[in-house]
Request: fold
Amino acid sequence: MRRHHGTTPRMGRVLGSLLLVTAAGAFTAAAAPVPGTPPVTPLDRVVPAPAMVAPGGAPYRITRDTAIRVADTREARRIGAYLASLLRPSTGFPLPVTTQGRGGIRLHLDPGRYGAEGYRLDSGSGGVTITAGAPAGLFHGVQTLRQLLPAAVESAVELRGPWLIAGGTVQDRPRYGWRGAMLDVPRDLGSVERVQLAERYVDALALYKLNRLHLRLGDGGPPLPAEDGGPGGHWTADDYRAIVRYAAARFVEVVPEIGLGARWAGGDADDADAVDRAVRDLAALTPGRHLHIGGDEPHLTGDEEYGAFVDRVQSAVARYGRTAVGWHRITCAHPARGTLAQYRGVDGTGADERARVVAAARAGTGLILSPADRTRLDLAYPEPGACLDGSDPVGVRRSYDWDPGRYLAGVPEPAVKGVEASLGTGKAATGDALARLAFPRLPGVAELGWSPADTHDWDAYRVRLAAQGPRWDTLGIAYHRSPEVPWPTG
Reply:
């Protein structure tokens, strides 16, 4: 074995989707041959890079007789049904999901092994087995299996194949537990469009094993969703619940940012009851562990008032059984035990500010790394003519080529809990524009969060990233064809 160096789940199936469009037009007839793709994708060609790859043996071929065999649990059956719904349209095969028999594609739970999100994939001529200690690991293993099939497997119309999965073993688990992406949904969308946009983004996160959706709920208006018929900024409670359910089915936790900073900056810092109500109501809608309290406004008041407000909000979050997350400037105050600070500075961030973050990390505050000049997806690409000219550019290599464990000098490596990209929508007017901002940079951030540090290699990554292009074409994902990446031609 060697290390590699280097519920409709399908994206693009909802008409009118703002990020993705259907791909049926990419092929002209049902049961046409798979166009221009190699018959077997190497085990090490996936994104994020697996922790261990050991190729060998004959591939497994999915046929009309293939069944998906699952452990006899509700979650395993659900993941099996998800996999079947991914594969049936393009293959045309029935792919029954069953708890009986042998061979085919097997989803096996073995509690106590591979951690909360890890998995092992074994492939050979007799079948494919994905083994995990928990359902999230099975789901991540399914995403690897998906990428090992030709990109045409994402088609909405039937093709002839062949549908081969390379022989060998992949053993994998994430480097960090927090692998996130922030989405700030456009303000002028209607309810249906807003939910569709968030759901399509969740599908993209799931494909690349990201597990947090940091959802901005608005800064200037009320800081939380409201029940239908009442004020709630850009969201209704039903909208929000729909996204939470959709994300949870894909093992993505929604982390809402409640925008209490805007309320505090408006003069309500002394209204402890208002803060408590805001946190209480959002916690009731949010089954996940974390609430993001914002906190990026210390410049709007004195240090003492800012610290008192952050302390008040953290106490409210803890009172309702949640863990607080805040932008890294909360380290100017008193981060409570368990609170996570999200660092979004840049390479040129002042020494004093960095020193406060490092001191907080040394004192036990966990960090999520989101350096703005590397992980902000709404910044321009450096190429002339790329979208959003005028903003500070971030290229594909720059967004990938850094090590979260060593990014802030002096921070103990265990203090780094993960990474997060951010996609603001203020400068992008269409779904395609949003997709081009996220792709191809989002998968790189996902790899930094998932893959071991010794697999991070730009030259190898850009080749694996290029291989994702045909998959995005089939899914109907608009993406920026950066000249830094050797995209396939033809």
